[in-house]
Structure formats: structure tokens, C-alpha cells
Amino acid sequence: MQPFNIQTRNLNIHGLKIGSGEEVVVALHGWLDNCNSFTPMLNGHTPEQTWYCIDFSGHGLTSWRSDDAHYYFVDYIDDVYQFIEAIGVNKVHLVGHSMGAMVAGLFASCFSDRVRTVSFIEGIGCVTTPSEQVTEQLKNAVLNRTRTHNKKARVYQSKAHIYEARAKTTDLNNELISLLMQRNIKALPSGFTLTTDPKLKNHSGFRFDEVQCIGAIKELIAPCQLILGNQGYPFVKQNLEKYINYYNHLSVINVEGGHHCHMQSSKECYEHIQAFMVQSGAR
Description:
This protein is an alpha/beta fold and 283 residues long. The chain contains 10 helices and 10 strands. It has one domain (2-149, 206-280): Rossmann fold (3-Layer(aba) Sandwich), CATH 3.40.50. The protein has helices at 39-42, 73-87, 99-110, 134-148, 159-167, 174-181, 210-217, 234-243, 261-264, 266-280; strands at residues 2-7, 12-18, 24-28, 50-54, 92-97, 115-121, 185-188, 191-194, 224-229, 250-255. The strands form 2 sheets. The chain has an 8-stranded mixed β-sheet, with helices on both faces. Strands 7-8 form a two-stranded antiparallel sheet. A hairpin with a 4-residue loop joins strand 1 (2-7) and strand 2.
């Protein structure tokens, strides 16, 4: 896989690229991850398409949003749109994991003419807030921003300390943790720190409610596939039950693994995604 960086209107987007096929795949990682999330699936393969695995803003090597900006979920839709415009393609396949899956779905709903297929991995629908809690959501976000303003990034004595911290929040083995986190780490004279923007952990100031989420799903006309880890997040399965009847075309695949099943059952996930794109993407 080869590194790339693409300058868009707002960001310098970094990532990894593989393949040289005419059709293009844009792969979108999960919250606090980076494009290395997809390397176990793609290493050792020569895909039929050209894959662009990007680092979202504030993640990996991609630039952070400005000091006065925050990370609204809907802004990732604009980032993906700008990226697709910058690489000069009309239509893409989208592959998304977790938060990236939700971004892929909403992008495909908004820009159906730009999307061939969508492959969700351990993520579907949206994270929602009931409409009657909208002011509480915003209030908590504002108060959280005040508490974290100018908070200094943590410095770790070694990379191993970072890996240990990540191990407490994931079921990935040490090898996969190291692969994933090495792109989120930079060296300092005093140790190591994360390249992820601390503001990513701030509370979201706004979320869709369920009615708005359903309205968006109904606009998604591209063929969709959901890959679930058999030990994945219960939240994802709950969202599937809640929203499955609103998708125009959705198939569901189960594989071994947890929330990062595409890293744990990488060969199987790659084969499912390739077969789905080839069978469903001639549009």
C-alpha cells in the first residue's frame, strides 16, 4: 500500500492507496482509528479497483480542524465529498467501519448519484438523540468544551504505554493494536503523544433523532451490505433491528470477530466486500 495526501478545500487528507482499477473505493475508518484499520484486509491482495483508505480529519496523519472548529458528524460528509471531487471521479464504492460506516450511509443518502455500493462493517444507521433531549445534548457539549479548553495532550513514556491504554478499550490482540496505533503516534523529545485531536472526545453538540435517521435511510438507493462480527458491539445489532426495514437493498453477513472484525477476519471480509462490489456495482 502506498501513502498519499490530497489537498481539498479545507484539509490535507492523508491515507493509503492500493490497486489501479478503473473503479474507485473510498474506505472510511472508525472513531479514533485511522486508515491502518484496513491494511489487514488489503495487504497481500491486488484488488480489482483502486482503493483510497483515508484518515479522517483529526485522525492519523490528516490535518486537524481549526482551533475554533469542532467535530460534527455531518462535517465528515463534506470531507468525503471534497475528497471525491479532488481525486476526480464521478462514482465510488464506499466501505466504512463503525463511525465510517455511518458516514458512508449518510453520504450515499445525500449523493446517491455518486455511489455504486456501500459496505458497512460493524456500523449502521446513526447515533441518535431523542428530540426532547436536544437542549440537554447541546448544553452538555458546551460545558464539556469549557472543561477541556486548552487541555494539554498527554505524553506517554513509551509506545508500549499507548498500546496498553488502547488494549483496555478493545478486543484486538497486541499485533493489531500496534498496527492500528502506530499511525496515531508521534515522537516528542519527552516521550510520545497521539496525533488524534483531543477535541474528538468532546461531546457532540447535535445529533439526528430517529425520525431524521429513518428519513435519511429511505433516500439510500445504492446496494448495501452489512458485515457483523459475531462478538461485535450490541449497539450495532440494535440499530440493525431498528432500521433494517427502511433500507431499499441491504444484505447482512456474519463473520468471526469483534467490533474490528475486518482486522480479525480480514481475508473473509475482503472476499465478501469484493464479491458484493462486483455483483452489485455495475450501475
